[in-house]
Design brief:
heterodimer, A: 216 residues, alpha/beta, Aconitase, domain 4, 14% strand, B: 469 residues, Aconitase, domain 3, 2 domains, five-stranded parallel sheet, 15 helices, 19 strands, 16% strand
């Protein structure tokens, strides 16, 4: 997984509450069998009209936001589906940081797994950043994860909180699977205990194809 | 440390393999259901890293999202869909994972076949790369949706790294009025708590109205828990649960049955267990519900009106309501019963089971679709389809003009060609009315199966209880 240290670039404002994962990346992109190129589908229905022409009013279609690296969003960003295509499309577009007052749970977890930094900030602070981002002259920001700061175009600094769990994983690009496999012994010990207490959860595997057939 | 535990506490604590020093836990996963859309990245990475599936006896795969609901014997026309479908088959073969094939009588929507096959049981942890995994919580298990990276983690290690959520209790007491269903109940709940009401929590549903629901009603309620922001929703197991499970293919065998029951009966929450958040609803006050906007929380009783943005106190809320009204082609204060429909869709993991088909057929019997309305009924699985046909429900529905389809997710997510045209308005028994969900610029109104059938017949939303017998 990519490490996250610091990013610098245009912050795009998205002043809408409850932006769901269908808006972030609609269903036609779920037929993908590869992650590359999903950036084209980011906020598809906001960016393109029904004839696939760019909607000139949408922020990501205007300069300098076409190269946005940061998104300033509103409450409950990422609600809805568990599709990991949501952080993939943000990342493929180039946005590796979203700042909002709150995020939905599954989307939050998916972002950690994909090196996308989600910053939770007080509503009033987010509104301030939103106003600054809305001005193309002042929208450039630098997010530094180690220092936990967002530096604005006028030189001022806004700090943010982040739990050490996420911070470490993002800074070091930690692969959860590699870490877990180091605990193989503990997993085996758990299974031995569980099997004696709940043997019905340990089934004979019939090989690929059919689950065991039984009555009913 | 609390000694009184909730159902969720008991399941969580009995599945912790190890605690991490950053406050997360390594949680053991007993059952992993999977489908064609979110499984391929996990398998692909495992292939690249030379990893195998840790316990193939805990995985069950089925194609459901992109497959057509028309003839099964034809090749899938859409290239991307066909590749995803074939990739699932290849992956299952290569990794030794059980797959229910498309043409098998047991095939269907993953959250419908899991319980049918007895994979869903009290006290287990169950995951799937789909947010409506919450459905399975109806059996008193901890079931939640995961992303594709977590799919890979579970396949390779049989565990997940998770931060322990909080407990939320939603109590619904009293008796649901006649003609009011589990779907109406959960829509009313989401209307009350909002789409972020449960974020960070696992919900337990309690109360006499919950107990009175059938397993299918309970599954409908738990299914939409995620729309209220909570990843998982649980209902404590009882005799209704045990009767449903007994004898199913993956359920404990007859000689294991007593031991399983003994364990399952220890699961319900202790009497003085504490919850971090509590909500109460009176079942008697719930009436048939209809969503009017572009979020499941935009819900209103059938005799209500579309809200007026001017009445909103908060500017962001006002803008959101206006945007939703504009998108949905409605007007402020419009009576819901005035809203005409073009289509009706009865199906999905929320309402695609036999009781749902029966409810639709009961309304459709002896009636016809309104002029200009088309409707389809998509049974949630081959077993549901077979039972419905044995009861003659398919004939009742087709005589009324409804299309009778093959099982699949179909128009809920509209990834398989079953899709609305721009501007079309649909009475849908699915779980999300987000913009574009059922097709670009399409308009979704979430309702119960009886209400969807009634809207299709009258041509506009009606209180199904008022239909002349």
């Amino acid at each position: 997984m990519k490490k996250f240290r610091a990013i610098s670039g245009a912050a795009a404002p998205l002043n809408m509450i409850n932006v769901d994962t269908d808006q972030i990346i609609p269903k036609q992109y779920l037929s993908a069998i590869t992650r590359a190129g999903l950036g084209k589908g980011l906020f598809h229905d906001f960016r393109y009209d029904i004839d696939d022409n760019e909607n000139p009013d949408f922020v990501l279609n205007r300069e300098p936001y076409r190269d946005a690296k940061i998104l300033i969003a509103s409450e409950n960003f990422g609600c809805g589906s568990s599709r990991e295509h949501a952080p993939w499309s943000l990342d493929d577009f180039g946005i590796r940081c979203v700042i909002a007052p709150s995020f939905a749970d599954i989307f939050f977890n998916n972002c950690v797994k994909n090196g996308v930094l989600l910053i939770v900030m007080d509503d009033s602070k987010v509104r301030q950043l939103m106003a600054i981002a809305e001005n193309p002259q002042t929208c450039n920001m630098t997010v530094n994860l180690d220092a936990q700061t967002v530096a604005l175009a006028d030189g001022s600094i806004v700090s943010f909180e982040i739990d050490s769990f996420r911070k470490r994983r993002l800074l070091e690009g930690l692969d959860d699977i590699g870490i877990t496999l180091q605990r193989k012994d503990e997993i085996t010990a758990f299974e031995a205990k569980q099997k004696s207490l709940m043997p019905w959860l340990y089934r004979q595997q019939q090989g690929s194809g059919q689950p065991t057939t039984g009555k009913k | 440390m609390r000694t009184a535990k909730t159902l969720f506490d008991k399941i969580w604590e009995s599945h912790v393999v190890a605690e991490n020093d950053d406050g997360t836990s390594l949680l053991y996963i007993d059952m992993h259901l999977t489908h064609e859309v979110t499984s391929w990245p996990g398998f692909e990475n495992m292939r690249l890293n030379g990893r195998s599936v840790h316990r193939t006896d805990t995985v069950l795969a089925v194609p459901d999202h992109v497959i057509p609901t028309t003839s099964r014997s034809e090749r899938i026309a859409d290239d991307q869909a066909r590749i995803q479908f074939e990739t699932l088959i290849k992956n299952c073969q290569e990794f030794g994972v059980s797959l229910i094939p498309l043409t098998d009588a047991r095939q269907g929507i993953v959250h419908i076949i899991g319980p049918e096959q007895g994979a869903t049981q009290p006290g287990i942890t169950l995951v799937c790369g789909d947010s409506h995994t919450a459905t399975h919580g109806a059996f008193g298990c901890l079931a939640f949706g995961i992303g594709s990276s977590e799919v890979e983690h579970v396949l390779s290690t049989q565990t997940l790294v998770q931060k322990r959520p909080k407990n939320m209790r939603i109590a619904v007491n009293g008796e649901l009025p006649f003609g009011v269903t589990g779907k109406d109940m959960i829509l009313a709940i989401i209307g009350a708590i909002g789409t972020a009401g449960g974020t960070g929590h696992v919900v337990e549903y309690v109360g006499s109205a919950i107990r009175a629901l059938s397993m299918e009603g309970r599954m409908t309620v738990c299914n939409m828990t995620i729309e209220g922001g909570a990843r998982a929703g649980l209902i404590a197991p009882d005799e209704t649960t045990f009767q449903y499970i007994r004898g199913r293919p993956l359920a404990p065998s007859e000689n294991q049955w007593d031991a399983a029951m003994t364990y399952w009966k220890t699961l319900p929450s202790d009497e003085d267990a504490a919850y971090d958040k509590e909500v109460r609803l009176d079942a008697q006050k719930i009436v048939p519900q209809v969503t009017w906007g572009t979020s499941p929380e935009d819900v209103i009783p059938i005799h209500g009106r579309v809200p007026d943005p001017a009445a909103a106190t908060d500017e962001q809320q006002r803008d959101a309501i206006q945007a939703a009204i504009d998108y949905m082609g409605l007007s402020a204060n419009q009576p819901i019963t005035d809203i005409k429909v073009d289509r009706a869709f009865i199906g999905s993991c929320t309402n695609g089971r036999i009781e749902d088909v029966r409810a639709a057929a009961k309304v459709a019997a002896g009636r016809k679709l309104a002029d200009g309305v088309s409707a389809m009924v998509v049974p949630g699985s081959g077993l549901v389809k077979a039972q419905a046909e044995a009861e003659g429900l398919d004939k009742i529905l087709t005589q009324a003009g409804f299309e009778w389809r093959e099982p699949g997710c179909s128009m809920c997510i509209a990834m398989n060609g079953d899709i609305l045209e721009p501007g079309e308005r649909c009475a849908s028994t699915s779980n999300r009315n987000f913009k574009g969900r059922q097709g670009r610029d399409s308009r979704t109104h979430l309702v119960s199966p009886a209400m969807a059938a009634a809207a299709a017949i009258e041509g506009h939303f009606v209180d199904v209880r008022d239909l002349a017998p």
